């Protein structure tokens, strides 16, 4: 690290839990963020500010006026631009040292697998179950840790699936949802700071996994109820019959 | 008696269960859900499918551990336990 970096990351480095080694780990880290909307915005901004070395941003959407109420990486003058380009501008302004790789595609199949295998960690910030299953399966195959978050209306959920651990559950152990049961922000609404709360938790967990700090949420699911400002912690066991990570696969 | 709690969103469909302590006799998860249905008719239609399994977007926890057996609903809920019911979220 040069003097500028030592100054930029000084408030991290002075944390004994993180120290120089932890910051070095962040600077060398490669992270894929899928979805650069309500959750992906704070995740990407905190990871870039924290000095994560390389960020792949995947999203095939464009910035819409109705996104700006909560998707804080985007701005009014960038309505109509691809979200990954808009977010890349925000992140480069925040930290020019972070390498941003925009992926303006709907990630699936081999392309998804290839990207997941290439990174140290994946953040799921998407808005539909189909993509969540595909990301989960790719992470289980590649043994890449996955930080998963969701937020809608006044409720949020966040957890970590760490396929490097033999006993770790996966997203499919938790949910097996049909597409027609899906709710999204366009039809259900979402309170702006809720995505900030959950997205910030995802960024926090990502940093902990990457820098080896503390105890992550692996094996635990946090639920947040914004109406009561109440957190609930649930233990999430691995499902031995899970079609993705179970014994029968 | 076990105590039953659920996410705010579920209370929107069963508003008369809100702001009161809900409890049922102990028994299997299936029996507990059935006892909730006695107090809130339509409840099991909302969270169980035609085969009596938990709908795929619904989760039940006993004392903060998520129940994995969503088909048989055989896990035992005992006196003093808390059952918590919530749903999958996808929005990002
Ligand atoms: Zn699994």
Secondary structure layout:
The complex is a heterodimer of chains A (249) and B (92).
Chain A: H1 3-8, H2 10-13, H3 19-27, E1 30-34, H4 40-49, E2 54-58, H5 83-94, E3 99-103, H6 109-118, E4 121-124, H7 129-142, E5 146-152, E6 155-161, H8 171-174, H9 185-188, H10 192-211, E7 220-225, E8 230-235
Parallel strand pairs in A: 1-2, 1-4, 2-3, 4-5
Antiparallel strand pairs in A: 5-6, 6-7, 7-8
Helix pairs in contact in A: 4-5, 4-10, 6-7
Chain B: E1 3-6, H1 8-13, E2 22-23, E3 27-28, H2 29-39, H3 43-47, E4 58-62, E5 65-66, E6 76-77, E7 82-87
Bound molecules: zinc ion.
Keywords, separated by commas or semicolons:
A: alpha/beta, eight-stranded mixed sheet, 10 helices, 37% helix, 18% strand, B: 92 residues, Ubiquitin-like (UB roll), two-stranded antiparallel sheet, globular, binds zinc ion
Description:
The complex is a heterodimer of chains A (249) and B (92). Chain A has helices at residues 3-8, 10-13, 19-27, 40-49, 83-94, 109-118, 129-142, 171-174, 185-188, 192-211, and strands at residues 30-34, 54-58, 99-103, 121-124, 146-152, 155-161, 220-225, 230-235. Chain A contains ten helices and eight strands. The relative contact order of chain A is 0.15. Chain A is globular. Chain A has an eight-stranded mixed β-sheet, with helices on both faces. Chain A has 249 residues and is α/β, with parallel strands linked by helices. Chain B has 92 residues and is of the alpha+beta class. Chain B has one domain: Ubiquitin-like (UB roll) (Roll), CATH 3.10.20. Chain B is 24% helix and 25% strand. Chain B has helices at 8-13, 29-39, 43-47, and strands spanning 3-6, 22-23, 27-28, 58-62, 65-66, 76-77, 82-87. The longest helix of chain B has 11 residues, at 29-39. Chain B starts with a strand and ends in a 5-residue tail after the last strand. Bound molecules: zinc ion. The site of zinc ion has 9 residues of chain A, from helix 8.
